[in-house]
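Page header: ASSEMBLY MODEL / two components / 650 residues total.
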Amino acid sequence: MASVTYNHVWKRYGDVEVLKDVQLEINDKEFLVLVGPSGCGKSTALRCLAGLEEITEGEILIGDRVVNDVSPKDRDIAMVFQSYALYPHMTVFDNMAFGLKLRKMPKADIEKRVNEAAASLGLERLLHRKPRELSGGQRQRVALGRAIVRNPQVFLLDEPLSNLDAKLRVQTRSEISKLHQRLQTTFIYVTHDQVEAMTMADRIAVMYKGIVQQLDTPQNLYNSPKNLFVAGFIGSPSMNFFNAKIRTDGDNVFVDHPAFSVQIPDSRKEVYRSMNGKDVVFGIRPENIHNPEFAPPGIVKAAIQAKVDVTELMGNEIFVYCIAGNTQFVARVDPRSNYTVGQTIDLVFDMTNFHIFDLSTDAENPEAVR
Amino acid sequence: MKIFKSQRVQNMHIPSHIILVVWSFIVLFPIYIMIVNSFKTKFSIYDNPFGLPEKWNFKNYQYVFTNSDFMGYFMNSILVVIISLALTLALGAFAAYALANWKGKASNLVFFFIVAGMMLPIRIASIRLIQIVKTLGLLNTIWGLIPIYVAMGFPVSVFIITAFIRSVPGELTESAFIDGAGRLKIFFVIILPLLKPAMATVAIYNLVPFWNDLWFPLLFITDEKSKTLLLGVTRLFGQYQTDWSRVLAVLTLSALPVIILYLLMSSQFIKGLTAGAIKG
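Prediction written out in full:
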């Protein structure tokens, strides 16, 4: 049981900066997910914590202890790798017992711990088998079991579900969540899959280009992304973006796009009033674009027109890929809607749920203004 | 239709089968000559060199087994080969482990320096080697041969084992590292068991040249007690006549251990040679 702190951590390989001033405070017993596209530094961040990579600058603390110079085995962590990294010539039992044997634990205790862990993961019958005789899901559980028996302060999981098929992945996802609740230990979990991050995490750290873009609860990350990258990364299908301009007209504030002009409701307009004439990115999630016929009551509607490009019926909803001006976007509309490709349709934006990103803050990854 | 197809596939193998049959014949014929003639008498070889012996004659083998000199040669050869192989494997594995884990530019330089040894025949350095062995006081002992054989086998050994260790996924060692194993422990408990095919390959690859080497014993050893088997056989070559049946009996016996070892290790050998190609 311990908290983990990244204190201004930098990692450089020559001129390449992989981690840039990473600051994270991970609470005791928290399930933190590091998520980001490949090459964003999330795995490196984890490997630095495990002690497999040295950090160039800064401090990493486990509990109150600075572990920069502590060897991996003395950090009291356990790690589950993407490839599981099971020792191919050892049985499941020996794989799980390996770390305990090295720590010179009495044999009876080892057996007790391994058997307990195996029972909790449903591996009792497989203890004498070699990894190659196991299925992917079973190997994955052995890898988890090997971490559990160590009873570590911090669990590190590096994309543990990537090698499983889609169905097993969903199932194992909930098993790992249950495991976290049962063990009451700090979990740090790396993935590139935002769905995994959203479903499992207490808090998510979104990483991009070596920088922690935002550290927050899944709910806050979804509702109030701090910048364009986070907004686009979290959520599926991802948020629609329109290059637009802010315009004030008398008392009212508008967002102007070549294909539409929408008014910002009174409750939010004061924030944007001073931005008159500024280039912004207007962001709105697919589920906040409705067919006017079936739009829920109580939303602030702003009507637009768009041309249908593709429709995908999902059963409970339809994804409509549309073009407005030169911008492609997707709307998630009521399944009763009846659209044909090429048709020009009326849609409404729910103006209580939109995001404005100010391009003058950063042209590539502008920050949200709210 | 299916039958037709499989017949066609089989037909396509015919030329390669013919080549293999001819090749096997070329390889096996001298062995056949060696074995059948070792059971003939000194003079019947000349009457009938290719046929089976009219009467199986075991006197040649009896001679070899009862002659204490030959048993001594045998022991010397076995000792030299086993120690040389053990050292080649041990040093090769250690060096390969270091090289495979050493992520620096110098690592590749050292690697190529060692592997370049595969291209240089060690025999061109024979004169210097005699001087070194003499200075060390190892002339006329089997101990002078061992370091030379180890040097001969080392490059191939490093070459094959390094490639093999590099194909072992890094996460495996990292996992053991986190589990609390040190570098040596990881080598002995994780890496070494995975190296079996590579080790078998190196062993077989070096076994034949070590066992069959005549050159260095001929240069270094004149003392009867220290002669190796192949050097010992030369005693049977007389100035005026050679007792071929005895020579062939000794050679048959000397080929046996190599053949047996090869049969035992061949499946591992093939695994080792193909390991670099397919990761896993």
